[in-house]
Amino acid sequence: MRLVILGGGESGVGAALLGKNNGYDVFVSDKGKIKKKYKDVLIHNGIEWEEEQHTVSKILNADLVMKSPGIPDKTVLVKDIREKGILVVSEIEFASQFTDALIVGVTGSNGKTTTASLTHHILKQELEVGLAGNIGDSFAKQILEKNYPNYVLEISSFQLDDIVAFKPHIAIITNITPDHLDRYDYQFQNYIASKFRIAENQTQDDYLIYDADDDVIANHLKKHPVQSTLLPFSLTKTIENGAYIDQQNINITIDNNKIIMPTANLALEGKHNVKNAMAASTVAHLLKIRKQTIRESLENFQGVEHRLEHVVKINKVQYINDSKATNVNATYYALESMDSPTVWIVGGQDKGNNYEELFSFVNQKVKAVICLGVDNEKLISTFGNMVDTVVETESMSEAVKIAYKIAEPGDNVLLSPACASFDLFESYEDRGRQFKNAVRNL
């Protein structure tokens, strides 16, 4: 069997190793440059590879193609592969056939990383469990090297687009808001359907945990019922089977087995993090983790880098790195959780953003907007009349220096871009690290 892998990054190289180990003839092809650390692994394992090109003849003779989630279906090469009738799968689909592990799959527009990390943090206290997918070492590589009996996977819509038989025993959909619409023909419905693929192979013995306060999810479930057992969570409704909030306590009921957890000492702040905690705790309760363990884990969880990360206080000004906010909804949560006047650093590569849902928070909480992008026109026209100060910058160090001048004791300086990072930075991680370095160099 010939396995061709498009993309020589973390997931591609992990799948190449797993494929070789299972007797596939493997070829890795990357249109860009492959990082040295990955090249070394391929060479060391005698796996054929190429970079900065796709040799079509070496790709179209594949029995199976695994493509990186970053490669759109619209590319000519992918169309040609499909036209030849060659199956195209994502890494999670390819890897999952080599494990019998119990899988918890987490998807959603926002909160995926935090919810997956928090779920893993709770489960690992009592179970052997790996964390993979969009996060950490690739799923394929972990199956090859660790072979955990349980996995928590953070899964993007792009990864779900290329599944066939993949089925998590427990699926979580944190929320669905417009994002990545450029990949879905600007049809929100296509993006929603993509997220719901996480449940498409589930049976009634499997579980779907979801936000019952999210109208997009609730309406989709009405029109397109799933086979799985539903365990909703809510901040506003009383839930019979699932999780809800009552007088500052999280109540979780599964098959008449109820546990109650206080929210007063949650390590993570903000309403959205109460929801993430409900989702993670529901998984833990399903998997029979002790209540005491769940509570302690919720109270000592450190959070995720670049997600509302408190960097440092300088002259009584708190600097907060939320570089992972690559869409408007993520920034909504960030601004919602600000409790003092905020200097907001925003901007980057706009994915067709509509900033309207931020207006009330900007009016209430934001004293200055610092635009950090190659093209800031939309931000300036949107927020120019709402705040006294709007400044344009094209480098992180400049943005941070201006924020330092504007902020007064008791204020926050918040990097929450609401946009992709690729106009000025390599990635949202690069953007967040540059922010932290600039702040520490003040």
UniProtKB/TrEMBL annotation:
Transmembrane segments: none annotated. Residues 106-284 form the Mur ligase central domain. It holds the Pfam family Mur_ligase_C. SUPFAM superfamilies: MurCD N-terminal domain (SSF51984), MurD-like peptide ligases, catalytic domain (SSF53623), MurD-like peptide ligases, peptide-binding domain (SSF53244). It is found in: Cytoplasm. It catalyses: UDP-N-acetyl-alpha-D-muramoyl-L-alanine + D-glutamate + ATP = UDP-N-acetyl-alpha-D-muramoyl-L-alanyl-D-glutamate + ADP + phosphate + H(+). ATP binds at residues 108-114. GO terms for molecular function: UDP-N-acetylmuramoylalanine-D-glutamate ligase activity. Keywords: ATP-binding, Cell cycle, Cell division, Cell shape, Cell wall biogenesis/degradation, Cytoplasm, Ligase, Nucleotide-binding, Peptidoglycan synthesis. Cell wall formation. Catalyzes the addition of glutamate to the nucleotide precursor UDP-N-acetylmuramoyl-L-alanine (UMA). This is UDP-N-acetylmuramoylalanine--D-glutamate ligase. It comes from Mariniflexile ostreae.
